[in-house]
Amino acid sequence: MNQRKLRVGVLALQGAVREHLKALEKCGVEAVAVKSNDQLELVDGLIIPGGESTTIRRLLDTSGMVANLIRFAQAGKPVFGTCAGLILMAKTLVSGETHNLGLMNIKVQRNSFGRQVDSFETELDIKGVTGSFNAVFIRAPHIVEVGDGVEVLSKYDDRIVMVREKHLLGCSFHPELTDDNSITEYFISMIKESQAAS
Ligand code: GLN
């Protein structure tokens, strides 16, 4: 069994990085801002934050991190994509855009809650996590299709907004923007599970 503290990375190229780092620290793990392949090597799991998915992808390309990130996930290391991060996790995008990384067997639509309502908050029931999570949606995507092996953890208004596929987790909203750390804790428990299994 591993004696050191769990080390969880937050991809720190653009977006809501600090809030995720703070939430992780509150949960008692070592939180690391990941900006390079060397830093990626050091972490036990990775959060891809919300922000602008096209920008994050461009910065991943210029940092030479795309192949390493895909390998990281394929090696069974847990990855959690939130909002723009969820878009990057998807196998396909409804728009036909190709900046996604194809990690999860899901099809995602960007900016799917309408231009009029750029952001909103709602209570969600999240399977295996909590019956009432105050979720903040900001120009959020949703999941239009899930493939084999993908478990739906939450829906809002009949739209899928949170999924898990083995060691991979994705949600449409920003779990790091409220004081409720239950989703961050859930992801940490996935990292512990993956370590116990390896
Ligand atoms: N609309 C953004 C995108 O398409 C995602 C918004 C967010 O991460 N809050 O990348």
Q: Going across the major beta sheet, what is the strand order?
A: 2-1-3-4-12-11-10
Number of strands: 12
Bound molecules: glutamine
Going by CATH, the homologous superfamily would be Class I glutamine amidotransferase (GATase) domain
Counting DSSP H or I runs of 4 or more residues, the number of helices is 6
Strand content: 25-35%
How many strands, what sense, and barrel or not for the largest sheet? 7 strands, mixed
- Helical percent range? 25-40%
Radius of gyration, whole Å? 15 Å
Average predicted confidence as pLDDT: 96
Low-confidence segments: none
Account of the protein in words:
The chain is α/β, with parallel strands linked by helices and 198 residues long. Helix content is 28%, strand content 34%. It has a single domain (7-197), classed as Class I glutamine amidotransferase (GATase) domain (Rossmann fold). Strand 1, helix 1 (17-26) and strand 2 (30-34) form a beta-alpha-beta unit. The longest helix is centred in the C-terminal third of the chain and has 16 residues, at 182-197. It binds glutamine. Glutamine binds next to helix 5.
Secondary-structure topology with pairs:
Blueprint lengths: L6 E5 L5 H10 L3 E5 L2 H5 L3 E4 L4 H10 L3 H9 L4 E4 L1 H6 E4 L10 E6 L9 E8 L3 E9 L3 E5 L4 E6 L2 E7 L2 E4 L10 H16 L1
Parallel strand pairs: 1-2, 1-3, 3-4, 4-12, 5-6
Antiparallel strand pairs: 6-9, 7-8, 10-11, 11-12
